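Pasting two entries for a bug report.
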Amino acid sequence: RRAQASRSSKHIKDYPALVKFKLWVARLHSQFAPLPEGTTAICLRLLFPEDDITRKYDIQEPRMTTLLAKSFGLDMSKFEGWQHEETSGCLGDELALVLDKSCIVDKDFETRLSIAEVAELLDELAALSPYSHNSIHRKHPKAHRRSRANVMQSLFRRLSLFDAAVVTQIILKDLRPLLYPLTELHYSAALVNFNTAAVTMLTKEHAMRAWNTQGLLPKFFRVRATFDAAGALAEKGTSSYCDAQPAIGFPIAVPKSEKGQSCPHALGLLFPVETVWAETKYDGERAQIHVKVRADGGSDITIFSKSRRESTDDRVAVHEIIRAALGLRLAKATAGSSRFNTSKPPNIKHTIILDAEMVAFCGDKVAEFYHISPLIGGVRGRRRVVTNVPNDDGDTESDDGIVESDFSLGLVFFDVLYLEGKSLLEHSYTDRRKILESMIYVRPGKAILAARYLVPSSTSSSTQAEDTLRWIFAYHLAGHEEGLVLKAAESVYNDYRLPWVKLKKDYIPGHGDCVDMVILGASWEKVRGRSLRAPPSVYTTFFIGALENKEESSSKPKFHSYFTVAYGLNREQLEDLNFKIRSTDPIPFSDLKSKDGLEFEVTFSAISKPTVVLRTPLLVELFGAGFTKAAHSQHYELRFPRITKIHRPNERSWTESMSLAELNVIAFECVGREHPEKEMYD
């Protein structure tokens, strides 16, 4: 299996998008060699805008249409059709059509900007977002920044029709609808006539390999996971992967995990290793922590999220926890606080990079995921406001009786990647864990190490290994834990031959949490639509709800829709559901208040609203990975929900669905909490 994986990683079968990209790269090098410094990063950031972690624009289609209208002196109404059913759902396409019809830009007009100039203007536009990287803000100081409208005019007025469409989608962080245009716009044809082999999209890994014929660029990206840093290593002529080291301030690529669909299957993915460890999978937010000790004894902390976005300011609440866990001097503001242990000697002299999960603690126990958000202290220097009302003791109390002061942020450390200027990425998991244990001062409720359990060798007795893993897994499920992550003792970090294997109950067919609820509305959502290659005529996202007054049989039914589901159905099932909804003559959401055709009342509390509302609720079976709560929501909802069955109305009516009260009772039991009104339900 390892040999096969190694061969497949080296020999990539060409596909149309990759062939075209290779031809373009060859032509670029032949016409403009030697390429200017920084060209690698410029091209990759333009081609894969969704992976450009330095530029953030705070611009989605509604704001983009306003800016485009101002840039070209057009009425905004001309852009309203970008997500109509008969279109591809691409604003870039719509812009090209509008400009062509209005004759503002001549068809033969050629772009007067180089890619470097386009990149510079995009940097200037991104500097207006507080979420862009600090390097972008330093490049364009606040005192000298132009308005968005002025930057957009400078950019778009010098672009051809097609290039204007491309740059529009780059700013919207999604080039897919232009690079891989849809061939079907009718909902049924788009879903049923889809050929999975017809379109293979260019991946950034394949693009990097094609750009750098030595194949080193994707390897550089694994240790410095930004296009700028990896591109700079490649352009310097770094001769081998061994010469590329991690560095403080540059994210390291996060390993991709396999999904274990049973205990034997999970172990089989790591066969025939001698030793496997099962780590507890904690329900939190990933934090890759970079620490550099200054000459004056202070320390600088940089934190990256799972998506490689720098989130140092967002995670300011855990900075002192990190320093205390490493025995470093605390900041002056907290140096005298009894909440942090400052009596230990420092465990590092210069630098360290750690992998951790930021969690909410209730005492010494890790709490549910949704408690993290209210505890995060700062977002880009701004305070988040906790909207809960103080109780008689002055503490804030949530809707289900939880006192917020019982919770605090903490960290679960599970790996060390870099220490005192030396990479640990090629060290075994066993060695890295031993080093990690020597680095961290454990303090329950603040900083702990991930719990782990030894699984005996599967080479000597596969039955014993499987039985042991089943017991460990069952123990975690009984304790309301999320699951396990299996790691081979001999594996290096981000080892494609011996990957990490996640084992969760919802990965196992027939397991997970299952509830009966109703679909009340539907819409096309662009992210899900584009992953399906489905136009706006397809309903991709469904608004789920439950009865608020099920016990009041004489009253008009009142539904509350508070979350959505977009996964679980194959293309044929999704086409059938679309047909069912359309055949019942649904009501446009915009007409809901003026229509009196519904036999029930419904409230939609999700941020987005449906395109249509069903005249009769449709009962569905939902499957998920436990329960959670959205911000400011009073009710539990399924986590990672999927539709597993659509009930025909003549077989099971919507009246058989769960009420909100019944759902909350089940959710409280599943997360291991006692319902505040348990006696009433008993």
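Entry 2 (this is the one that rendered wrong in the viewer):
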Amino acid sequence: MHVIIVGAGIAGLSLAIALGQSRHQITILDAAPELTELGAGVQMTPQAIRYLFKWGLKDDLLAESIIPENLHVWDGPAGNLLGSVRIKEMEAQYGAPYIVVHRALRNGKRLTADLVVAADGINSLARSQLLGSRDPGSLPTGWAAFRMTAEVSKLKADSVTSSLIDVQSRNSNWWIAPDISCMTYLIKDATMLNIVLSHRDNINTKEFTPGEYNKTVKSIFKDFEPRVQRVFDLAESKIVNYPVYAVPPLPSWSHESGRFILIGDAAHAMAFYMSMGVSIAVEDAAALATVLDLACPSDTSSHLSDTPSVVVDPRLKHALDVFEIVRKPRVEAVQEASLHGGDSSHTSHEAERSVLYEALAHSHEEEIWPLESDAVRGEHVRRCRRTGQRLGLGGITDKGTRDWCYDYDAIGAIEEYYKTSAAAKHIVGQNRIAYRRFIVSIYESLVQDHSLLPSFDTGVSENSARMGSQPDYSLPTQEISFSGFLFDMDGTIIDSTPAVVKHWHSVGEEIGVAPEVILETSHGRRSIDILKILAPEKANWEYVTKMEGELPKLYADDVVEIPGARSLLSSIISYSFPWAIVTSGTQPLVRGWLKRLSLGTPEHLVSAESVENGKPDPTCYLIGLEKLGLQDAAGEVLVLEDSPAGIKAGKAAGCKVLGLVTSHTVEQVVAAEPDWVVKDLDSVRVVRHEDGKMTLEISNALRF
């Protein structure tokens, strides 16, 4: 396969190395006429170093890098040691060292494309071309950093600073205070000290002279201890100030053709407070190379088509879909952790700072501290909005945060998802009817008595098949604006049909009811309502929530996403637009599936426990409107539903309704009278967000 890589930075060159080892043909394009030094130094974390070692770069990389024994954290003004992170021990903990490397690029090997990978950095032109008006660009994080260097020989010779320089241990040092900090680490074979001074991004230094830079730095850090002041005195005269920008979560990284994708900073630039920006780029390269090898092995034809820029290749499209599904939640969690690390380590909140300093005293220990169960300190531990992972105070100094950031296998995550979901996901995307038949075939293999098999809708009624008519999904593309969205869950965001079949078969055996009796009417209805009829003694919330909470654990591999759902949700979440899930499932069931698929968790969830009567009673959607604060603007809210009962509930609540033909026949969906009918959410995308409204483009809708 031929791959063009746009951008010869860390992400681009890492991908070139990985794909080159699999014998794919690579062409690297870069705007610079030659590859030159990029900056003073970067820190790289263990999970990324593992891949660089795997690609044969171990000796070269270690020869050019430094492995500090410790990161010492100091109170900036007082100068007393607050705690130490044992960096050298990370190799044993995470399988590779944490290194500091001088950031330079040597002349790269230019090889000679079926796929274009854009790794052109934070100000990516490719991103703007891909997303157009949906590209948010890079946004300020509120932080900035002065950067400067000092000669180690001068620092060692000075009586004030000599204690900071130990070329044997090569320790890094970090002085912290509210709103500012000073980080120092050795580079260039321990001959230079890199100095990074974080501060609030509230100074315009664009026209500064060297003298003004020096005066400003000394003014901001005037209260820091004498050793830091002396480092400034001995530093090189050149100082630069870099505002810290990040790229917020994007609606998509790839083109629908499967021929183009963004990676690295072009897709997800982030703050540097977990030392993860460069490492995440290496992860991207490892993950993308892995999924391309799985989908398009190098021993296949080098050209996937004669017109690769136009033709959609299902193998490439599936590969890029898998890459996004696996990588986006991971990256967005690390982005949040990185910014939280900066915010919390520079906090000016007195109580929070007290807990931070207390936590730093435990930073050298093997145990996570503080625990969330700590009645006093646990309230200062947060969770990622995207994945629910720990966000401890101090970022890199918090072991619980470090563990999930640094002990991660990007290749393994891709392989696991690809191998367990590729076949089913491909069938879902290509042919929903075939998928449902596929589910029946799985279930047949599990049930000895085939007379117990439920009757599955195929999406085409017997009458329609006999008449030879086919649904006409050719309605012209429309753009409609809304103030909020209410999503059903199963059949709209996910399809857990095989899990539900297995689940109700198990429950049917327990309560003595044939599963086909349950499955005939279960979709879109609350379990408690089904049990009220079939097994009244089980119709209580304690039993139902426990029963449904087990589904994501027992049948984790039996759920897939509805095509287009992740992309649509990512767009809505990236703009912090009002949305909620309104479902007949219980809270444990919904949260379990969302966690399993690493889908965004809404701020508002209306579940089976929230209402006395399930759909088609509109109460659930009326509650959803109230939670969004849009109870007086129901007509501006879109309900997305697949079941006739849910469609009727949304309409009765006064909302606009989009019906999906994912679980019922076209006739059944149309009979419920939605405003639009589509096959799935691949027909829906966000095109604009302005003046409190989000505009959707609905394409390939049903004529009815």
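Dev reply: Rendering is fixed now. As a check, the viewer should reflect this: Residues 35-39, 105-112, 301-310, 422-468 have pLDDT under 50 and may be disordered.
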